[in-house]
Amino acid sequence: MVFGRKKSCHVHSASSDDETMFAKDHKPKKIYQLWPGNNKFYCGGRLVFGPDASSILLTVAMIGCPSLTFCIRMVFLIGKRFPLFHSLILMGALLLAILDFTFLFLTSARDPGIIPRNKETPESDGFDMITQSSEWVNNKLGNTKIPRTKDILVNGCTVKVKFCDTCLLYRPPRASHCSICNNCVQRFDHHCPWVGQCIALRNYPYFVCFISTSTLLCLYVFVFSWVSMLEVHGKMLLMVVRDDAIFIVLILYCFVVVWFVGGLTAFHLYLICTNQTTYENFRYRYDKKGNPYARGFFKNLYELFFAKIPPPMINFRDLAPEEPDVEVGSIASELDRAFGPRGEKYDMEMEIGGCKNSKAGLSLQTMEYNHNKIEETIKKKGLGERNAETNTAFYIPGIQEPENLTRNSSSVDVRSR
């Protein structure tokens, strides 16, 4: 067989051109770009928001619109009567509004205390062993999986911590996995849709300050709307309603909102005094046993408002560690998996329009060539076609299967015995 090397459809290995291209296109990525959670990152990973961060716009509108309306109304009253009095009211409203928006931003755009994930399940330490009791429970519950737990001593009390199958870690005490953000968070309190973020260890003080200033702002606008309205229009209620509807709308709005935000503030002040979280309180965690985290009224207040906020456990702006042989979806990786590593120096001839693949085609051609050489050797030794047929047939596995396996007449047939 004559071998001819075709020049068409000749494709070289990606060892030189592709590597240069990948080296130019490949840029090291940061952790926030590869983070598997549902968070939204802005300003190069400096700002960390929840997946429902767009709800902040509604919160800003609910705070900003009445505050701005009240301030504009105060500006018009400054030139009419008692300019100093209305100027002080205006400055107080602006200060509370600025503080409220500042605490809202610090609550929403801050890492609440996200715990880094593990890439692999930690080594078994005796908790995965199947006992008779666990086997009986599994049979009763069917396919329901019993969560892995550990017991930890906290201030002399035993606290049970669970294993997170998503983050592949045992959660620290008071931590929980937020299903909305898809993260395990330190001292998880709750996920607040109004701020679009988890409320946890690192932003809980700012959240308390946010709802407190919101309550004060509502009360401030409510009270001074009444005072300014009566001071300008007199004490006749019907005349006030007829002449100044803006103050009436502000009074009604603040009266409704203050019940919600004020009640929320009072509830969290109770949680602070007892050193509980919303998650623990809703699950009646300490109704039947003592709270190991309670330190007394003053120490609980000090822990929240004066203790130093711990640094984040993960810096999302750091470079992500590069995994070996990570070329997902690239042409080079597909070629490596199909034909071996690119370190081997070979040329590939793709079978396009009659061109043979060099790796598979060359193997077939080599086997055909060996078969022809064997036949020529047999003929040169003087073996005729008859002797070649009567001898045990020689075949190449996968290429030529034996058709008639006949034996020499001199050989002994086992079946004749």
Notes on the protein architecture:
By secondary structure, the chain is mostly helical. The chain has a domain at 49-113 and 193-322. The chain is 46% helix and 10% strand. The protein has 13 helices and 11 strands. The strands form 5 sheets. Strands 4-5-6 form a 3-stranded antiparallel sheet, with no helix packed on it. Strand 5 and strand 6 form a beta hairpin. Helix 4 (83-108) packs antiparallel against helix 6 and helix 6 packs antiparallel against helix 8 (245-274). The chain is elongated, with a radius of gyration of 39 Å. The two termini are 46 Å apart. Mean pLDDT is 74; it is low at 1-15, 126-134, 325-367 and 381-417.
Helical residues, percent: 40-55%
The radius of gyration is 39 Å
Q: How many β strands by DSSP?
A: 11
Task: Give the CA-based shape.
Answer: elongated
Estimate the strand proportion. Answer: 5-15%
Secondary-structure topology with pairs:
Elements: E1 10-12, H1 17-25, H2 31-34, E2 40-42, E3 47-49, H3 55-78, H4 83-108, H5 132-141, E4 149-154, E5 157-164, E6 169-170, E7 176-178, E8 183-185, E9 190-192, E10 197-199, H6 204-233, H7 237-243, H8 245-274, H9 278-282, H10 297-305, H11 331-339, E11 347-349, H12 358-380, H13 385-390
Antiparallel strand pairs: 1-11, 2-3, 4-5, 5-6, 7-8, 9-10
Helix pairs in contact: 3-4, 3-6, 3-8, 4-6, 6-8
